[in-house]
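Morning F.,

Quick status update on the modeling queue. The single chain you submitted on Monday has been processed. Sequence for confirmation:
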Amino acid sequence: LNGAKEIGNNVMLTTCLNNIGELYKELKEYKKASQYYKESEEIAKNLEDKNIICILYLNQGEIKYFLEEYDAAIEYINKSKKIMYQLENNHAEGELYHYLGLCYYKLNDYEKSAESFLLGIKKTESMKNKMYEIDLLVDFVEFLNNRGMESKCEKWLIKALNISKDIKNYKKTENFSTN
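Structure tokens below.
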């Protein structure tokens, strides 16, 4: 961090601040994480680096969700989504819709919540991070269960189970080929 400041490398500085924010998020110190994301965001705006800003908005949205500031979370996530579509950069689209689904659920907007979860599931199907897809599916099943739609849960649980089996089989193959 100090090295980036000393040499005036704002791209590196933005990345460092974002990474510190990520560490605080992992430690569940969400207010500190938000401060680092915000500081990083201010520098990124001056760089006009839309990729970084897109990521930072999504990170802020996640943090606002954890801080139970759901309207602010939705605002940040929608800012991220707008930039994401301008850049045709959709690597985090599933995550974006996942958090929108969670926020709308907390705000009792169940129609938007279900719509967001389903969009997130669709977007994560092409992602390489299958564990994230399972997390989203489990949250959607919890949503359905809490809404009294237990009969619809089985389809999504089976999908999560099949992905889990695929991951286990892949890991077995990977371990076999490296031995």
